[in-house]
Design brief:
Order of helices and strands: HEEEEEEEEEEEEEEEEEEE
Number of helices: 1
Radius of gyration: 22 Å
CATH superfamily of the largest domain: Immunoglobulins
Protein name: Carboxypeptidase regulatory-like domain-containing protein
Strand content: 35-45%
InterPro entries: CarboxyPept-like_regulatory
CATH class of the largest domain: Mainly Beta
Number of strands: 19
Organism: Geotalea daltonii (strain DSM 22248 / JCM 15807 / FRC-32) (Geobacter daltonii)
Structural class: mainly beta
CATH topology of the largest domain: Immunoglobulin-like
Low-confidence stretches: 4-22
Length: 261
């Protein structure tokens, strides 16, 4: 009987171990170095991975696609990224000043690894393997988002009193629930609450606003909201044109699980 119990216990342990291994995503590693020649760039640097199956290659002058993974660049330009097996575009950014990830500001430097034909290079991450992808020296200073011929959504953000809200980000989703990672993010609203959200192409989008980049629970006093009255409303966008007049009202988060009334 004791031997039978031991056999059963061992079998349970083996099954649990097998299930745990099956649940762990198979990952691989890419490493490299980005050597940008402008020594006056003292801000933070990051490498971004963009899963090819989840969207288009990044194009900051037209739209800011939210990365599938973000990793810091060390002081000597070296970086190491670990990601689930798959195909990725790889890009990076370095702030002219300040810190943090998110859409670029004028003067920030961006690079996108390209192939010999000038097209975005696709890096393949293989499970359990490490690859050194070399040293990059290219980079382009961001001058701002293009204003003509770009697919976009434009409007304003105001609070419940009708006052413009500055410094808010607009997030675009493909689903009404607006859960998970957004597809695209705007630059921050200006002093008059104006925003311009660049997109890769036309379609139906749902918009949410936040005054900080990234996930996590909002803090008391931060602005939240979405486009629509009572429930999220779709925004229909035509490729190559700007859909205007998409105005959003934000609420201050009261810190009790809901925005303040």
């Amino acid at each position: 009987m004791k031997k039978l119990v031991q056999v059963i216990t061992l079998s349970v342990v083996v099954v649990i171990a097998a299930v745990t291994i099956a649940q762990e995503p198979a990952t691989g590693t890419l490493s490299g170095r980005w050597m940008w020649l402008q020594k006056d760039l003292a801000g933070d640097g990051y490498v971004h991975l963009f899963n090819v199956t989840n969207g288009p290659p990044p194009l900051p002058e037209s739209y800011w696609r939210v990365p599938d993974g973000t990793f810091p660049i060390e002081g000597d330009g070296r970086f190491t990224v670990q990601a689930p097996a798959g195909s990725y575009f790889l890009g990076g950014m370095k702030r002219l000043k300040g810190k943090g990830v998110g859409p670029l500001s004028p003067g920030d430097v961006f690079f996108l690894k390209k192939d010999e034909n000038g097209k975005p290079f696709i890096h393949v991450v293989k499970a359990g393997e490490k690859a050194d992808i070399g040293t990059f020296t290219d980079g382009v200073a961001f001058k701002g988002v293009l204003q003509k011929g770009v697919t976009a959504i434009e409007g304003t953000v105001a609070d419940r009193d009708g006052k413009p809200v500055e410094g808010v980000l607009i997030l675009a989703y493909a689903n009404r629930e607006m859960k998970g990672r957004p597809l695209f993010v705007s630059t921050k609203t200006d002093r008059k609450g104006n925003y311009r959200l660049g997109l890769h192409q036309g379609g139906t989008y749902y918009l949410k606003i936040r005054d900080f980049y990234g996930g996590g629970r909002p803090q008391e006093g931060q602005i939240l909201g979405f486009y629509g009255s009572g429930e999220a409303a779709p925004v229909l966008v035509t490729t190559g044109a700007a859909t205007k007049g998409i105005d959003i009202v934000g609420n201050r988060f009261a810190g009790r699980g809901n925005a303040s009334p």
